[in-house]
Amino acid sequence: MQRQQDMQDLLFSDQIVAVLVPVFVDQTYSYRVPSHLVPTGGLQPGILVRVPLGSRSLLGVVWDDEAVLKDAARLKDVEAVFAEFVLDEKGRQFVDWIASYTLAQRGMVLRMVLRGEEALQPDKPIKAIRLSAAPPERLTKARMRILSVMEDGQARSRKNVMDEAGVSQAAIDGLIKAGTLSLHDLAPPAVFAPPVANFAPPVLSDSQQEAADAIGACFATGGFQGILLDGVTGSGKTEVYFEAVARCLEKGQQALILVPEIALTNAFLERFAKRFGARPAEWHSDLSQKQKDRVWREVAKGRASVVVGARSALMLPFRDLGLIVVDEEHDGAFKQEDRVIYNARDMAMVRGHLSGFPVILASATPSVESRNNANLGRYQHIKLTSRYGGFAMPDIRLIDMRSDSPEKGRWLAPSLVAAINETLEAGEQSLLFLNRRGYAPLTLCRSCGHRFQCPSCSTWLVEHRSRKKLMCHHCGHSERVPPACPSCGTEDNLAACGPGVERIAEEVAERWPDKRIVILSSDLIHGVAQLRSELDVIASGEADIVIGTQLVAKGHNFPAMTLVGVIDADLGLAHGDLRAGEKVFQMLAQVTGRAGRMGGKGRGFLQTYASDHPVIQCLSKGDWEGFYVYEMEQRQKALMPPFGRLAALIISGEDREAALQYGRDLVRHVPQGAAVRVLGPVEAPLAVLRGRYRFRLLLWAERSFAVSPFLRHWLAGCASPKGSVRLQVDVDPVSFV
Ligand code: ADP
Ligand code: ZN
């Protein structure tokens, strides 16, 4: 009876809410809301609150779940309410959707949305001084100087006046005390100046105009529409989707442009600023916590109207989102591979669908998935088939390495060397592309054949000669190159096998000692700022030969670049995964697409041992359409995505046997009767990572099969992994290592 009384008291006096907290759980927790914390209108779903959880206090969000009143006495109170910060209904549905699709805990998805409480605090006002009364009669020289600075009546910071007048702080404080100057709080300056839709619209080419009109029509109609903006490198896609951003701004809504992180260059941001009169808000991993807090807050308040960001920008708490553009949509960087395993490109579509706005996927080399969606009419397919300004697409030539082979110990074929010489003579830029960091991918002892392997991964160590180290590209382990072989003790007899970019740079420096050479590789670049300045150097033409990994492959405009040489076009073709051919095609079409974007005769050279391979053939003929036809045929035959569906289960553990056994247990519990196939467990290609043994299961199902509910049902019938064993679920896997 007493208990029922308690509950009634609670029900009638206090509100009880369900709160989702950003921790490793799927469920919400219920809290009582003390009446003095209830905002006008009630504590509605979406409002941010601080709640106790165990011994901690955490920021969470009032959720739509029904609050459960189990034990009134044990119900804890909400500690604080932040009524100005709301994750709107669509934002909450989005969190639920991602969790349900990826099988992640809802709390972990919410964790990608929320930041600490500091993000909720406004910027501090600036203290400023201003002239407020007549000066005292006796004036020192210092005071006179201060007054001559301040006589225009403007407010200034103390520091400013100290510098301008060349006086001490005491002199200023004296005048404040005398009442001549007064202290004020100035509102901090706006963090982001608003971009203006029609600040400086470009004159579009006819085909750009047509594309922009088609997108404009989507805005006029309203509602969700997937759009594939499919235009060759240099066709002017950016200007086209900027028009979409303009339409979105005109509606008073926020726009999000997702790009692979490395495409967030100065050149891009400045181009945006020229078009819209202000830089967009940026979101990427190189921002400080404080900068992130500000962007988060301004986005939540609706004061940042355009965000350009890496994949995690998708989770920002937009107040009124009206457009998402995913640029370079084919890029693997949109897939997050840890914690919540999701593809930001696909989830962007989901977001647009939930909220009812257009989502544009832009690429010169769309993913096979997106091309298929366009073919089926699920997306509107907008094509730009030629380069802006009438510039020609680069000529692609194959270099058959069997007949046109480099001298021993060298990596550039004679015909490529000749082409570089011609380019240098013309005063133009060359790019040599090799998607492999370091000096050499394998080091071995010439005497005993010992190969240097990572102690905690099943991979060879890569020599980085510039640092005098052998490094693991999977776990970051590094060791000094030893003077003698650790196995047989022979001194100075180690061989570097195969090239990385550093080795190509060595050859280039030997061949052209007086030319300006830039190497771009992520391990040689420290942070976004340095990358931006290196890219600016290349764009300004101050480099003759650029040697780079995929960092240089994408998106950039290098006006003087007319030659691209691919050192190893076959790299990646031999990978066993289903997208190996697609990835090679995309990478090489993109990197050769850097040549001749701004005029000049662009040329691309592909060094290959597999000149008959269909992917290499399509590239050499410039027959991109042919590639898609070929690739779709292959996938259709094998019923691979997008014509079938996959999910991967990755089991890892410190104990090999236990991990393998858990994989076998999972297979034993596959629900009977479902139209799925489960392959494995097999040892993963990367069989050991950071000291953990890895196994993979692959689930195949028909296109129309709902994979996520099936997985949930299956795993619910299995025991959780024990000890060090862990299970990761990857729906629609991109990586198969
Ligand atoms: P894409 O993203 O399709 O590879 P970009 O949008 O970067 O191509 O355009 C390629 C080049 O052409 C850029 O230097 C860009 O400034 C220029 N350009 C594109 N459209 C226009 C336009 N309408 N007016 C002036 N310059 C343009
Ligand atoms: Zn390692």
Q: Can you summarize the main beta sheet?
A: 7 strands, parallel
Structural class: alpha/beta
CATH topology of the largest domain, by name, is: Rossmann fold
- Going across the major beta sheet, what is the strand order? 11-12-10-13-16-9-17
- CATH 4th-level superfamily of the largest domain: P-loop containing nucleotide triphosphate hydrolases
Attached small molecules: adenosine-5'-diphosphate, zinc ion
Identify the overall geometry: globular
Number of DSSP E strands: 32
Q: How much strand?
A: 15-25%
The chain-level mean pLDDT equals 92
Q: Between the first and last Cα atoms, what is the distance in angstroms? A: 60 Å
- Count of the separate structural domains: 5
Radius of gyration: 30 Å
Number of helices: 20
Give the oligomeric state of the chains in this entry, treating copies of one chain as homo and distinct chains as hetero: single chain
> CATH class of the largest domain, please?
Alpha Beta
Instruction: Work out the helicity level.
Output: 25-40%
Which residues sit in consecutive blocks of at least 5 with pLDDT less than 50?
none
